[in-house]
TrEMBL record:
It holds the Pfam family Acyl-CoA_dh_2. CDD domains: DszC. InterPro entries: Acyl-CoA_DH_C, Acyl-CoA_Oxase/DH_mid-dom, Acyl-CoA_Oxase/DH_mid-dom_sf, AcylCo_DH-like_C, AcylCoA_DH/ox_N, AcylCoA_DH/ox_N_sf, AcylCoA_DH/oxidase_NM_dom_sf. It catalyses: dibenzothiophene + FMNH2 + O2 = dibenzothiophene 5-oxide + FMN + H2O + H(+); dibenzothiophene 5-oxide + FMNH2 + O2 = dibenzothiophene 5,5-dioxide + FMN + H2O + H(+); dibenzothiophene + 2 FMNH2 + 2 O2 = dibenzothiophene 5,5-dioxide + 2 FMN + 2 H2O + 2 H(+). Keywords: Flavoprotein, FMN, Monooxygenase, Nucleotide-binding, Oxidoreductase. It is found in: Cytoplasm. One of its GO terms (biological process) is L-leucine catabolic process. It comes from Caballeronia sordidicola (Burkholderia sordidicola). This is Dibenzothiophene monooxygenase. Residues 243-379 form the Acyl-CoA dehydrogenase C-terminal domain. The keyword Nucleotide-binding applies. Its EC number is 1.14.14.21. It comes from the Bacteria.
């Protein structure tokens, strides 16, 4: 087993001490969440505050100036952030995935340069998915060599977080040989056009629109073979959905309790002179609280195999690393099967504790359900159930890279 100096791996920090830095920012974010949703205002200032406070360097090892938090601690913080505004964990999803890849990379001057950028506040967005008639398994976005430089050309949709970012993590192919690569592309250049054209009814302000690359320049050291990407990446991406759902459920609980405390009107056939003392209403809020608790517990439990896979990777234990990578996929899938139902139930049940005034647009209480439904729709739960069932029955190893595109019957 390789012995590394203390602080060179991100295995955990004093959680309360780390969280204390960000909780005032979370509180301000919560205050603006309703207005951002109603006006569809992108949270540029909110993300800038998180960036300045070092949120993007949470997984960077202490030896390189980061917080050195574990994966579980990262997602605890993301649940707190998601409780304030569920759009922000999703907007930062691409950033933390790229950071995780660098955290898993072997020591090198290039890795040190990325760590320095993260600590200084650089953020990543994401551009992997291509919409339209792109065939399943195909990628039209290509990186090629022209006039002695590398350039990127193509168009991506669901470019989550890219509109806020300094860099974009792009899934592409090398034009010369068709090999899959990841390209880190700087956003501040003429060859990158970012559009805020995401029109989903939920998660409206994640910056998940279209990105067009027109001879966008890429440094050759910023192009890496996709095959060396960290192995638990798909599970890691799915943990963001779990954390977001947990944050939404917790927000629904907080709003339900606050609305009940403030409500003055009662029904003639109710059970108490004030709605906060009505045992049936207490039951409703109690059930929402329990579902939020369970969703968070599931989300945090699902992070544990990924942390074990990360540590096994640096312990040079290939057998353990593979086992934990599989567990990371299976547990994140199991978690979403249950957490999706619990979060959606909590967001719907919220209205059973309140009167007709709760459906007023000014309160925007419907945003919790809309956001949970949007998050739950990105990667269909039915296929997660199939994946888990195939593993339970047949020990069929899960697929580590998901793709979407036009099927052969639609050609």
């Amino acid at each position: 087993m390789t012995q590394l100096p203390p602080g060179t791996l991100s295995v955990g920090a004093d959680y309360d001490n780390v969280a204390r830095r960000f909780r005032p920012i979370f509180a301000c974010i919560a205050e603006s969440a309703v207005a951002c949703d109603q006006l569809r205002t992108l949270p540029r200032e909110q993300i800038a505050e998180l960036k300045q406070a070092g949120f993007g360097a949470l997984r960077v090892p202490v030896s390189h100036g980061g917080a050195g938090v574990s994966i579980k601690q990262l997602f605890r913080l993301l649940i707190e952030l998601g409780t304030a505004d569920s759009n922000l964990p999703q907007a930062l999803r691409g950033h933390f995935a790229f950071v995780e890849d660098v955290v898993n990379a072997p020591a090198s001057p290039e890795r040190d340069r990325w760590f320095k950028r993260f600590v200084e506040g650089d953020l990543f967005g994401n551009a992997w998915t291509e919409a339209g008639d792109v065939a399943l398994g195909s990628i039209k976005t290509q990186v090629s060599r022209r006039d002695g430089r590398w350039v990127l050309n193509g168009e991506k949709y669901y470019s989550t977080g890219s509109i806020f970012a300094d860099w974009i993590d792009v899934y592409a192919q090398r034009a010369e040989d068709g090999s899959d690569v990841i390209a880190a592309v700087a956003t501040q250049q003429p060859g990158v056009t970012l559009s805020d054209d995401w029109d989903g009814f939920g998660q409206r302000t994640t910056g998940s629109g279209t990105t067009v690359f027109n001879n966008a320049e890429v440094e050759h050291t910023h192009i890496v073979d996709f095959s060396r990407r960290f192995k638990y990446q798909t599970a890691f991406y799915q943990l963001f959905h779990l954390a977001t759902l947990a944050g939404i459920a917790r927000a629904a609980e907080l709003d339900a309790a606050a609305e009940v405390r403030a409500r003055k009107r009662i029904y003639s056939h109710g059970n108490a002179p004030h709605v906060s003392q009505d045992v049936q209403i207490q039951q409703v809020v109690g059930e929402i609280a329990a579902w939020a608790y369970a969703t968070e517990a599931i989300a945090l439990r699902a992070t544990e195999p990924a942390q074990r896979a990360y540590e096994a990777h640096f312990a040079d234990d290939a057998e353990a690393e593979k086992r934990f990578n599989i567990e990371a996929e299976i547990e994140s899938a199991k978690g979403q099967i249950v957490a999706t139902e619990l979060a959606l139930r909590a967001c719907t049940h919220l209205f059973d504790a309140l009167g007709a005034s709760a459906i007023g647009g000014g309160k925007a209480l419907d945003r919790h359900w809309r956001n949970a439904r949007a998050v739950s729709s990105h990667n269909p739960v039915i296929y997660k159930s199939k994946l888990v069932g195939d593993w339970s029955i047949n020990q069929k190893e899960p697929v580590y890279l998901w793709q979407i595109g036009a099927g052969p019957a639609n050609k």
